[in-house]
Write a structure and sequence with these properties.
Layout (H helix, E strand, L loop, with lengths): L1 H16 L1 E10 L9 E11 L5 E12 L9 E15 L6 E16 L7 E19 L4 E14 L6 E11 L10
């Protein structure tokens, strides 16, 4: 019982310190013909490297789901990845344009109508590049992120390689920190 409570407490603490983004995703390339626009969700945690402009970002989860155009065709159903990135803000303050290359592990899931109760998947390298604009709001040093992200997942099986472009909107909040400017 104590172990479960400690685990729940640790997960809640991590959730309170992490941030999230929602994205609208389009697959590009050869595996995009059988899917429509997708929806993505990501959770991340920033580790500041200096006072304001650079940080390491651990993307704890990046999940994209792609609805098929036709349920009778083989199509990419989803991809999930865990990545580490370096975010550089082109400003001396906490507001401005940013760029962030990312590298990590990814899994691509493919739906196949000939295997109705099974999903095929492949694991491998996930590479991404995100750029956008960050706006600081409120007295607790919260942020809105607006960005464009290109991701390339390279699992071992080349039939599962995917390229995607995402329009991302995110909100990073801090519950217990107050901005020193107020």
């Amino acid at each position: 019982m104590k172990k479960n409570l400690l685990t729940i407490f640790a997960l809640l603490l991590c959730a309170m310190q992490s941030s999230g983004q929602v994205s609208f995703v389009k697959l590009l390339g050869k595996n995009s013909a059988n899917t429509t626009y997708g929806v993505g969700l990501s959770a991340f945690y920033d580790f500041p490297l200096n006072q304001s402009s650079n940080s390491m970002r651990l993307e704890l989860m990046n999940l994209n789901i792609f609805p098929p155009k036709d349920k009778d065709l083989v199509s990419v159903a989803a991809n999930i990845s865990i990545k580490l990135g370096y975010r550089h803000l082109f400003s001396e303050t906490t507001t401005g344009f940013y760029i962030e290359p990312q590298l990590g592990f990814g899994r691509v899931v493919v739906s196949d109508p000939s295997l109705p109760n099974q999903a095929r998947h492949a694991d491998g390298l996930a590479i991404a590049m995100e750029g956008g604009y960050c706006v600081g709001v409120g007295e607790r040093d919260n942020f809105f992120y607006f960005g464009l992200k290109y991701e390339n997942d390279l699992p071992g099986n080349s039939d599962y390689n995917i390229n995607s472009m995402a329009l991302k909107v995110g909100y990073a909040f801090h519950l217990f920190r107050r901005n020193s400017d107020y």
